[in-house]
Design a protein that fits this description.
MetI-like fold; 0% strand; transmembrane helix; MetI-like; transmembrane; transport; MetI-like_sf
Length: 326
C-alpha cells in the first residue's frame, strides 16, 4: 500500500507541475494571434486603437496580470472549459478535440499495440533462434527500416503507393462522397484511407520493439534460472515464453506504456503528410497560429496521458517484479 501511495503522490505532484508549465509555455512565445491578425490588416492601411481592441476581444486574448490568468485558468480547467479556439473561431476547443480524438486513437493507438505485440514476438523468436536466419532477418530488417524518419517513410509510401501505383488514397480520413456514420460503407472507406498512415507508423516503429526485446531476451537467457529450467527437461516453448520472455518483457513494458501514453498526441508528421484529421494535425495548426487555448488543451491531454501511462506501468512493475517495491 505504501508503494502505491508514494506513486500516487508523485503523480499528483508531477501533474501540478505539468499543468503550471502548460499554462506558462504558450505565454512565453513571442507575439500573439491578435498581433498576427492586426499585422495582416495593417498591410492595407493603418489600424485604429478601437479596431485593435475589437480584434483582441473577438479572439479572447487573456487579460489581467499573469497571476489572475493562472487562477482563471485553474478554475476553467476544473470545469473542463478550455475556451474558444483562435484558429477555428467560434468553435470551442472541446468540440475540436472530441472530433479529432477518435481518429488518432483508432489510427495511432491500434497501430502502436499491433507494432508492440508483433515486435515483441519477433524479438523473442530472434533471440531464441540466435545465429540463424530467423534472427538475422528481423534484426537487420528492423534496424534498417527504423532508421528512416517518419516523414520520409510517409513520403515514400505516398509517392509510390499513392501517386505512382494509385493503390491508396493520398490524403484525408474518408472520401468526399462519404458521410460519417455508423455504416459498413463508411468504416470500410475510413479503413481504406488509413492504410498508408498506418503502414508508416508500423514500419518505423516495429524495428525498435524487435531490437529491444531481442537484446533483453538474450540477457535473460543467460540467467541461472533459465539454465535450470532447461536442465529439468522443460519444453523449449515453455522455457522461452514463461521463463525468459516474461522477465525480458519488463523494460519493453515501460517503453510501451510511454508510447501508449503518447498516442493522444497523435503522430504529427504522419498526420500532416496525409492530411489526416487527428490530434497531431490539430496541434500543428494550433502551434502555427499561436492558438493558446487549443495548444494548452492538447499539451495538457498529452502530458496527462503520458503521466497516467507511466503510473500504470509503475504499478504493473510492482506486481510483476516485487523487487521494485523496495
Amino acid at each position: 500500500m505504501n508503494f502505491v501511495l508514494k506513486k500516487v503522490g508523485l503523480l499528483l505532484l508531477t501533474l501540478w507541475a505539468a499543468i503550471t508549465l502548460n499554462f506558462l509555455l504558450p505565454r512565453l512565445m513571442p507575439g500573439s494571434p491578435a498581433d498576427a491578425a492586426i499585422a495582416k490588416l495593417a498591410q492595407s492601411g493603418p489600424v485604429s486603437a478601437s479596431v485593435q481592441a475589437a480584434i483582441k476581444a473577438q479572439l479572447g486574448v487573456p487579460t489581467g496580470n499573469i497571476w489572475e490568468q493562472y487562477v482563471s485558468y485553474l478554475g476553467n480547467l476544473a470545469h473542463f472549459d478550455f475556451g474558444v479556439s483562435f484558429t477555428f473561431f467560434p468553435q470551442s476547443v472541446s468540440s475540436l478535440i472530441s472530433a479529432a480524438l477518435p481518429w488518432t486513437i483508432v489510427l495511432v493507438g491500434v497501430v502502436t499495440i499491433v507494432s508492440f505485440v508483433c515486435g515483441t514476438l519477433l524479438g523473442v523468436l530472434a533471440a531464441w533462434k540466435r545465429g540463424t536466419w530467423l534472427d538475422t532477418l528481423p534484426t537487420v530488417g528492423g534496424a534498417f527500416v527504423s532508421g528512416f524518419p517518419y516523414f520520409w517513410t510517409a513520403l515514400l509510401l505516398l509517392f509510390f503507393l499513392g501517386y505512382v501505383a494509385g493503390l491508396f488514397p493520398r490524403s484525408g480520413a474518408y472520401g468526399a462522397t462519404v458521410t460519417p456514420n455508423f455504416s459498413i460503407e463508411f468504416f470500410g472507406d475510413a479503413l481504406y484511407h488509413s492504410i498508408l498512415p498506418a503502414l508508416t507508423i508500423l514500419i518505423t516503429s516495429l524495428g525498435g520493439w524487435v531490437l529491444g526485446m531481442r537484446n533483453n531476451m538474450i540477457n535473460t537467457l543467460g540467467e541461472d534460472y533459465v539454465t535450470f529450467a532447461e536442465a529439468n527437461g522443460l519444453k523449449p516453448k515453455t522455457v522461452a515464453l514463461r521463463y525468459a520472455a516474461r522477465n525480458a518483457l519488463l523494460p519493453n513494458l515501460t517503453a510501451f506504456g510511454l508510447a501508449l501514453g503518447a498516442v493522444v498526441g497523435g503522430s504529427l508528421l504522419v498526420e500532416r503528410v496525409f492530411n489526416y484529421p487527428g490530434l497531431g494535425y490539430l496541434l500543428y495548426n494550433a502551434v502555427t497560429n499561436q492558438d493558446y487555448p487549443l495548444m494548452q488543451a492538447l499539451f495538457l491531454m498529452i502530458t496527462v496521458s503520458v503521466l497516467l501511462a507511466n503510473f500504470i506501468v509503475d504499478i504493473l512493475y510492482g506486481a510483476l517484479d516485487p523487487r521494485t517495491r523496495r
